[in-house]
Each structure stands twice: as structure tokens, then as C-alpha cells.
Amino acid sequence: MSKTLQSGTMDPTKMGVGRSIAVLTSGGDAQGMNAAVRATVRVGLYTGASVYFVHEGYQGLVDGGDNIKLATWESVSMMLQLGGTVIGSARCKDFQTREGRMKAAGNLVKLGITNLCVIGGDGSLTGANQFRTDWSELLVDLVKAGKISKDEASKSSHLNIVGMVGSIDNDFCGTDMTIGTDSALHRIIEVVDAITTTAQSHQRTFILEVMGRHCGYLALVTALSCGADWVFIPEMPPDEGWEEHLCRRLADQRGRGCRLNVIIVAEGAMTRAGKPITSDQLKQLVTDRLGFDTRTTVLGHVQRGGTPSAFDRILGSRMGVEAVMALLEATPETPACVVSLSGNQAVRLPLMECVQVTKDVTAAMAEGRFEDAIKLRGKSFENNWNTYKLLAHINPPDVKSNINVAVMNIGAPCAGMNSAVRSAVRIGMIQGHTMLAVHDGFDGLAHGNIEPLSWTNVSGWTGKGGSMLGTKRTLPGKLLEEISLNIHKFNIHAMVIIGGFEAFVGGLELVQAREKYEELCIPMVVIPATVSNNVPGSDFSIGADTALNTIVATCDRIKQSAAGTKRRVFIIETMGGYCGYLATMAGMASGADAAYIYEEKFNIKDLELNVEHLVQKMKTTVKRGLILRNENSNAHYTTDFIFNLYSEEGKGVFDCRKNVLGHMQQGGTPTPFDRNFGTKMGAKSVLWLTEKLKTCTRHGRIYANTPDSACLLGMRKRALYFQPLAELKEETDFEHRIPKTQWWLKIRPIMKILAKYNIELDTSEHANMEHVIKKMGHL
Q: Is 288 in the active site?
């Protein structure tokens, strides 16, 4: 997109003056659609545009009348936490005909609407593009038929279209995650967790069928997240003779002492010959050949239901903002685009390019080019598939590598640590290494609390919260003597250190002590795992997503209690140390009025402004407020201080309650994201260590003292990178235990705009139009 329209010349609060935007949801519903609708409406109003709801999807567009209504700020309140779509969706035959599209065009022209935001799957978005292509011809016909005047036609000569992909299948190419996918995974994992407890009681085999007619994403990520024995996906049918292989694998797992077998099937799974593979067929196979007690569960529409996850709310909100900007910046020359997230960046992609690649996948599958199908699905799908193959279908070799790798947890516990340990241990064993568990962090390393782990020791760990190895905050600095003795005694050749800021600092201390202690000259890798998300070198850390969902679920309940008692403001304190990530993201996902954090300094004037804002809000139909405060946002403006200030200033207008969430934020079963992220990080770290060990071996001895032999594995924008610990020192504020630059600060203004603050939105960083094919090349 050209940058001429941007902040240098244009005030974002005036961008939409005199323009009208309509928003509709179409096709199958998906959790998070409401967040997208809410953001589109509020950001549209913020820019000065008029915004219309189109009820019942394209059917409403064709029928017109009361189906197209003006939206107000308050009309989208309290919808963030609702699943499905509040404005309704319908499959529409009429819109597929020219007459239907002509009626729809007439309805839009009469209201002066020339900007359309469509939230739906690839079918809905293709329909929107067709509508845009036909637009000028439709207007000519409408003028001829006397339905609209020439003047009306000239005022609405061009239709802008922007799409957001709402589909739980994640089947749209060019987007990492479609709205609703993460929430569907939450539903599936809840069921898997429930099933595993009953299956373990009885030594059963469970076959779980999940949605995804043409796309195996849900099945694949579920299999990774629960450590399934086998997954069937349409993109990669099993090889000939899979029945024997499957039965052999299930029998092997039983033989190793696993009480439970899990098989995940996508509803569109098929054989290489194109015959469907159904859950009943699999049940028959396992029962007949192995005599195992086998049960099937078909999940069905449960996956579409329930409240949206924190990720889907943030995704929907961010995409809504980007969609409005894309509409208002569009010209007749720019192609219709979809907005999506790639890594954690908002991107714009030409709609028809994405649709084309999505069709190419279907063609590749139909022609039996399965490797191509997986590549076309994009990098994240391919990574998931490769990790699954690594973990699922290989038995530990008989030949040992004679390498001992130690795995430990450092710092406070968080959900997802165990996923990382499990995959590190299994990948290590597949490579012939001996994997050692170090209990209780650096303390355990110093005191020799170390033991070998077996394959079955870690089974079932992906779904367990906390730290099974045990963890402590102790740093190694004062224990170096004991630590180096034990590294020598247990013959440790490499280390995987999983934890929060302490893991990073501890890793650095070990590297600095290499000059003095030769035993520390071994390759090591740090994997960030902390609810605070405050480790330098990574945009996300394991555990933050679970904590975020816990906070958001609590905020939802609190908001609900406030809805009953009018005019109430809640002040909620979140964890995070000095890092405002949890407070900011939870604020965005739960629709907070303000989130106080350390990184964005605030003074008494800001507090007064926030109180006044709430006083004004209580005059509307939305009579409740939600304020989040990070625990260390300000030494003097404590949660009690803010509570007292709001109580005093709001006297007679609203009353206040406060809640300190505390350690519940560190607990709970890990979310699908944390399980999957932990699994990928654990696997990648051990593969890297294995390669490093090859380059660091001299005369049969391991000697690693270069900066790049001690790295932190982090996720940056769109990929996982290994970064030397020593280099990350420059990027760190050690006093406050946070990185000096944090990507999420850029999206804080969105939260304020959605809470009705008229602040400056920096539009200079807006996403340029990218191309799908190019994008897939550089990922």
C-alpha cells in the first residue's frame, strides 16, 4: 500500500469522515468473529466514518431493509467474550446469482456504502471479490432499471473490499492463523484431557475425529499437543501398508508401559487411493487385529462453540483495526486484500492470490502431490508436520551416541515447561543420547540431584501444568565450584535450560565462568518459559499464553458480575514483574478501559483523565469499568492507591472493587499454543545441540567456548532463531528484568482506541501489501 496517505499527511481521526463501512460475517461461524466486528465498528467510528452492521451475512445484504443497520459504539459492548457471531451468518444461494448481487448493490448504493468488510472463509471472500469485479456493471444495470439515479451511481462508483478470515479449520493460505482456530483447539484439547484421564484408568485406545474436511491443521496440532500415537490428515495420506504399521506402533507403545493410545483423525482423512479413512473403520481395525478396548469420539460442532480464547480476541481486534485502515487507504487500483497475522505482524495480502494458493492445495491433494500440498499450506503447517514426524514414528535406536544431555527448569513454574522437557527428552533419545533430568534447577545441578530419564518417564507430560522436574530461582553464580564438579562427575556434554529471566541470567553466568571452569565449556541452550514474557531475544515465552487465558477468563467473570450491579469499576492486579505484557494483552482481550504498566510512565494527570473517562462512560448504556494494573507498574501508585483514588473520585457515580489475581496465573493446564510451542522449542533445541556437539569435538573431547555455543532459542517475528546469550546482554535492562525494546508496546494504542480514547494512532507502520508466493519463499 502506498505510504502517501499516512500519518505525515492524514489525521487518523479524520480519515473516514464522509465514508461508510459495512461489516458482515458469512459462512460457518468461528469464535473471535465478534472481536473483529467490535474492532471494525469502533475503529471505523474513531476515524469519523459511519459503520453499518449487515445481519445474516450475504442474505442480509441481498434482502436489505432492517438487515442493514447503523452501528453505535455501545452496540458492540459485551460481545468480545461471546463465541459465534452476534450479527448472524447464513449460507446464501441468492448472492451467487447476478440478480442477488444486483439487489445487494442497490441496497448499498441507497445507503452510500462503498466499503465492505467481510469476515468469513474462502468461499465468502471469493464471493466478495466477485461482487467488487461486477460492481460497475451492476450499477449500470441498476440505473437502466431505474432503481438508482445516475447521481447515486457516480457517488458510489467504486467498491472497496477487505477480508478477514474467520474459519476454525485454518484452511486459508497466506495466513498463519485464521480467526477461531485457536479457540477450536482449546475445545479439542479440553476433550482430549478429559478422555485421557478415563482412558488411563482402563488401558484403552481412543480415536478422536476432529473437524477439517480439506485441511488437517486442527488434527495435526492436536496430535502434537497431546502426544498422539498417530494422526490422519488429508494433506498427507499414510503410506501403503499403514494398517500393519499402525497396529505395530500401538502394540509397541503398550509394550513400553503406556496405558493409553490416542489416534487423531481429520474428518477429511483418506488413503493414497482417495478412499475415506473413518474413525469407525479404525476402531474395527484396532479391535480385530489387536483386541484392544477401543472407543471413538466424534467432536462435531463442539469445536465451533464456547468463548473465544485470548489469542482469537487479540487476533480479531488487531485484524479489525488493520481492515479499517486498508479500506480507507484503498484506491480503485489496489487489489481486494485480506488482512492477517504472520508471526506477530499484521500483513495485507491480495485476496485472490490467497484464494488461488488455497485452490492449489486442493488440486495438489487431488493429483496425489502430497509433499506439494504440505509446502503450499505454508511454513507453520510444514514445521508442525516435521515435528510430528520426528516425535511420533521413530523408535529410539539401539546404537547409543555416548552423549549425555541434561535438562532443567529454572525460575518460577509455568504451564508448558513439561511439553518442552518431554520433546527435548524424546528427540534426544531418538538421536541416541542419554537424557538426564536435573531436579530443582541450578540447586539440583550443584547438589547432584540428577537422574536419567526414560521414554515413558515423560509420557503424558504435554498436558501437565507446572514443572515436573521441580524448579528454583537460585542462580549458579555462587555454586560454580559444585556445578562444574557435577558436570564432570555425571559426564554432562550439553545442557537444555528451560525457564524465565533467571534461566537467561543463569546461562550468562555459566558462560562468563567458562574462563575459570573448563567443565562449563559445553554447548547450552536456553528456552524462554515464563508467564511474564520478559526474556530478551524472544517475542513470546512458553507459559504466557496460558496465563493470559487465565486472566481473561477471570476478567470475563468479573465483568459479568458487574453487569448485574450497575455502575461498578473493577481494578485488577496482574503478574509480570516489570513487564506489562500480561496487563496489556489481557486488557485488549477483555475490553479493559485502561492498563497501567511500568513501560509506559503515567502520572496523576493520567489517572485523573482515566477517572473522568469512566465518569463519562457511566452516562452511557455501558455502566461498568475494568482497569488492569501490572504489579510493578509504579512503586507509589499501588493497586490500593488506585483503588482509593477511583473510589473517592467516583463517589456517587460508581463504586469500586479490587482483585489481586496472584499465583493462579502460574498454574492451570497449558493451552494448545503453549503445548505446541513448548514441543517445537524442545525438539529444535536438542537438534541444534546435536549439530553443535559435532563442531565442538576435538580429539574426542568436547570443548565449546565460543559465544555461539551458548544460545537462547527465541521466536522473532516469523521464525525461531538461536541467538548467543552474550549478544542479548546489550538488549536487556537487567535492573527491571525486561528487554529494552518490546514489540507489543506498538499495539497498546489499539486497546485505548477500542476503549474510546481519542489518541494519536501511528499509521506509519501500516502493513504494505505483500505477495503470498514471495512470502512463502522467504519464510
A: no
